[in-house]
Design goal:
Layout lengths: L5 H26 L11 H10 L4 H8 L7 H9 L2 H9 L2 H35 L4 H11 L8 H27 L5 H25 L6 H4 L4 H4 L16 H29 L1
Helix pairs in contact: 1-3, 1-6, 2-6, 4-8, 6-8, 8-12
Length: about 270
């Protein structure tokens, strides 16, 4: 199959976690000199803000620049070096081959994002304040209705779970775009460009149309796919539940991925 080393994957993830941990720790130190964090600071809220770049742009950049490439890079490289044709011939089934790369990409993306979230949560627990679900309840009430649950523990679990699902969808979306790109190096830069477009374009549209809280535009906003229930679009607090923009974003990016995948598959079938 694809030239992908599990050992190299763990080395890469270990290095990534060190970088993310360092950036997170440095940011906490910058926000609270000498790590003198007031007891009133909610570590769960800090964790939520950390996801969307409210706290650290560096952490957000490392996040966006890592998980979509972990496996998909090898898929695109195999395609561009025609190694893919040999793999398909050996597997004797194009569908079997594509199903394998989709499942493998989803697996490694999910594991990576889960580890990132757990490390960030652990750092918040150790350096900000111990997790206090009772105190977090006040934050969730203030965020209403833009939450998944008023139960702090359930809301935290859903934020992490939906972030993993969203990351898998986005990683597959990026990989599908990469199928049309013949240069693997260009593919690496394309993901960051795609992320910026999906982040900035909905915001620009929202501003131009002077919308207060649009569910449709929010469904196009990448943050509602990757960091659901955390970041909202626009200057006004959303008037809808956090489930709605997440489901909308999930459907939108899944549809785009399916359309692009179908177009490429038909094109590849005709060529081969």
């Amino acid at each position: 199959m694809i030239n992908f080393s599990t050992r190299k994957y763990f080395v890469f993830v270990f290095a990534l976690l060190i970088l993310l941990s360092g950036a997170t720790i440095f940011n906490i130190y910058s926000d609270y000199s000498g790590f003198n964090v007031p007891s009133r600071i909610d570590s769960i809220v800090y964790f939520y803000h950390l996801q969307s770049g409210f706290v650290s742009v560096a952490v957000l950049f490392l996040y966006y620049a890592s998980f979509p490439f972990i496996y998909s890079y090898h898929v695109i490289d195999a395609k561009n070096t025609t190694f893919q044709n040999l793999i398909v011939t050996r597997s004797k089934s194009k569908r079997k081959y594509y199903f394998h790369i989709l499942v493998t990409n989803a697996f490694y993306t999910a594991i990576t994002v889960l580890l990132i979230k757990l490390i960030q949560l652990l750092i918040c627990q150790l350096l900000v304040n111990p997790l206090n679900f009772r105190a977090n309840r006040f934050f969730l009430h203030n965020q209403m209705p833009f939450v998944f649950s008023l139960n702090p523990f359930i809301n935290l679990i859903l934020v992490i779970l939906f972030s993993i699902i969203g990351a898998v969808v986005f990683s597959t979306f990026v990989m599908t775009i990469g199928l049309f790109i013949r240069n693997t190096i260009i593919y690496l830069g394309m993901e960051l460009i795609t992320s910026l477009v999906c982040l900035l374009l909905p915001g620009t549209i929202n501003t131009l149309l002077n919308l207060k809280s649009s569910l449709v535009i929010s469904s196009l906003f990448l943050e509602n796919l990757l960091q659901p229930g955390v970041a909202s679009l626009g200057a006004y607090a959303p008037r809808f539940n956090a489930f709605l923009p997440f489901i909308g974003a999930l459907l939108f990016y899944t549809l785009l991925t399916t359309i692009l995948g179908f177009i490429w598959y038909k094109r590849y079938s005709e060529v081969s």
